[in-house]
What we know:
The longest helix is centred in the middle third of the chain and has 47 residues, at 200-246. The protein has 14 helices and eight strands. It is α+β, with helices and mostly antiparallel strands. 61% of the residues lie in helices and 10% in strands. The strands form two sheets. It has a four-stranded antiparallel β-sheet with strand order 1-8-3-6.
Amino acid sequence: MFKPLISALAQFTAATAGRNMTKAAYVAVTVGVLSMVLLTDNRARGARGWVDSLLWTCLAYFVFEWLVRLRHMRQQGRLSLYVSSSAGIVDAIGALAVPAALLLGVDPRTAWLLGVLWVLKVIPGIPGLRQLRRVLVLESGPLVSVLVIFLTVVFLASVAEYFLERDVQPQTFGSVPAALWWAVVTLTTTGYGDAVPVTPLGRMVAAAVMISGLGVFGLWTGILATGFAAETRRDNFLKTWESVSKVPFFAALGPAAIADVTHMLRTMELPARTMIIRKGAQGDCMYFIAAGEVEVELPGKKVQLGEGAFFGEMALLGNNKRGANVSTTKVSRLLVLDLVDFRVLMARHPDLAETIDAEARRRALENK
């Protein structure tokens, strides 16, 4: 009788055997970590039975999830790749760390502290963290260079303060390791005041260390900000490229031309029943429908335009006033081409100019 239940559970977990976290996994991580925290609070002794039950339930889920993933990867012939990957290691730790500690005789209250490692399972499901990892890898050279500067300043400052302050403050600066701690908390501007140089030269060194700390962390911030900006532009370019390549109007273009178009277009995500163009307004851009549908209100009729169509070009070809109201009928993704870029694009690609002009004449005749 349990075979159908086990089979259903296996199919449920196998359906999400990739690295995307399911809602159940998020709930299990949240409940498990909170239960682990409650286990350390003496005020929760009265609910110890409930806390233990929740912890064992969460652990059982993670063990089951890990075993299903192992089975799924073995069927796909990727078991060794999964086991040696960071995702496989995190899953294995989440499933085995607590049971291994309990089997080794570790006190249960201490063994369950390893449940904090379940938080690591959330990391692969956060897109921003994946982007951060790419930025850290791509900018590893500059980041390490700044780290070397940081360590150099810390070491030189600690030696200088030891030399200048050891006779005046032997308890605080009586050794290089003690001065090294002072240099770290001073360079990070988090602990200056616990130990204060009293000699004039010592204070000059401290001032230089604090100023260097601002510069070092400013460099790190600038490197990471630049890296994130570059990654964001790359992601936006790839998304726009994908949208452009799906528009039949651009299907005949080569990769270089599509790249040219992609740099000019910007993407708009709009919900249903959103007004895009109002009749009589000044026209400064045209639109391509990458996904969804829009409705054009013409005199005496309404026209629906679907994926691959474009609109708003009439205002760019001579008449600057919008000739109709246009709104979305469903969730839509539009590619927007501004007037200046429109003229540049038409100059670079005469075939596109002819197509747009021919379509504009056809619509003008229909609308008479």
